């Protein structure tokens, strides 16, 4: 998959669990297909991602008749594009397309974990069957954005269980909240951002969230869709904490 948003396009190929090393690496046809679609020529830049933290930076060396290719790796990098501390997005389960989109964009924006949360106003059943799909979406988004780790998409969790386990700087999107710029510092356990469903949390749920130590944060004067609110929160929180300072 190609990288967007920059002046130089780099094709990134995902090799989960690969033992990346400097030198030539054989990329199987099933993965090299992405480079073929992007019309990558010998000598053009390519990156290989193992989804476990390492990125092999190199160039396409040559194509093989069977559709596989060789990539000449000249540098290994780790931790690129990762936040300085764990960043968890806990989002009430949405309909299929909306939650897929949320997982993809949360990955691009640096979330290290995504927790699908079951609340009173979440619709549908058997959401646990969608976890494998969500993880695939996250892995594909890693290749798009060029970060080094794939976030863990956890099994859907009832709100009460999630609240009992949450650690670190705990934040929840709420119209009654304070400005994000007034956040306190994050500790070593990281940051958790909680966003409710389209209909919002019930009054009982809101009380439980505050009781669990979550600080309410204000995302602006407009009513946002849940998936939009989640992305806005990730951007605003990281900016307020100084994580995006160049």
Task: Report on this structure.
It is found in: Cytoplasm. Its EC number is 2.1.1.193. InterPro entries: Alpha/beta_knot_MTases, RsmE, RsmE_MTase_dom, tRNA_m1G_MTases_N. It holds the Pfam family Methyltrans_RNA. Keywords: Cytoplasm, Methyltransferase, rRNA processing, S-adenosyl-L-methionine, Transferase. By secondary structure, the chain is of the alpha/beta class. The protein has two domains: 11-78, Beta Barrel (Ribosomal Protein L25, Chain P); 87-240, SPOUT methyltransferase, trefoil knot domain (Alpha/beta knot). 28% of the residues lie in helices and 28% in strands. It is built from six helices and twelve strands. Strands 6, 7, 8, 9, 10, 11 and 12 form a seven-stranded parallel beta sheet that branches. The radius of gyration is 20 Å and the shape is elongated. The two termini are 25 Å apart.
Report the sheet-strand fraction. 25-35%
Helix fraction, binned, reads 25-40%
| Alpha-carbon distance between the two ends | 25 Å
For the largest beta-sheet, the strand count, sense and barrel status come to: 7 strands, parallel
In CATH terms, the superfamily of the largest domain is SPOUT methyltransferase, trefoil knot domain
CATH C-level class of the largest domain is Alpha Beta
Shape: elongated
Number of discrete domains: 2
InterPro entries: Alpha/beta_knot_MTases (IPR029028), RsmE (IPR006700), RsmE_MTase_dom (IPR046886), tRNA_m1G_MTases_N (IPR029026)
GO cellular component, one term: cytoplasm
EC number: 2.1.1.193
Subcellular location: Cytoplasm
């Amino acid at each position: 998959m190609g990288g967007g948003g920059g002046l130089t396009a780099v094709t990134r190929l995902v090799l989960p669990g690969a033992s990346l090393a400097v030198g030539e690496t054989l990329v199987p046809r099933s993965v090299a297909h992405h480079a073929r679609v992007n019309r990558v020529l010998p000598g053009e830049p390519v990156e290989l991602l193992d989804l476990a933290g390492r990125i092999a930076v190199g160039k396409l060396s040559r194509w093989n008749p069977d559709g596989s290719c060789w990539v000449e790796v000249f540098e290994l990098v780790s931790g690129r594009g990762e936040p300085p501390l764990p960043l968890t997005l806990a989002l009430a389960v949405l309909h299929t397309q909306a939650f897929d989109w949320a997982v993809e964009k949360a990955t691009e924006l640096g979330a290290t974990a995504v927790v699908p949360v079951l609340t009173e106003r979440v619709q549908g059943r058997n959401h646990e069957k969608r976890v494998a799909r969500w993880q695939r979406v996250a892995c594909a988004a890693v290749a798009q954005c060029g970060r080094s780790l794939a976030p863990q998409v956890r099994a859907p969790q009832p709100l009460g269980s999630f609240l009992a386990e949450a650690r670190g700087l705990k934040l929840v999107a709420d119209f009654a909240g304070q400005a994000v710029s007034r956040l306190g510092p994050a500790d070593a356990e990281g940051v958790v951002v909680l966003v409710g469903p389209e209909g919002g949390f019930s009054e009982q749920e809101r009380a439980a969230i505050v009781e669990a130590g979550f600080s309410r944060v204000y995302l602006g004067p407009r009513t946002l869709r849940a998936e939009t609110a989640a992305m806005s929160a990730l951007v605003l929180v990281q900016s307020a904490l100084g994580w995006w300072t160049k």
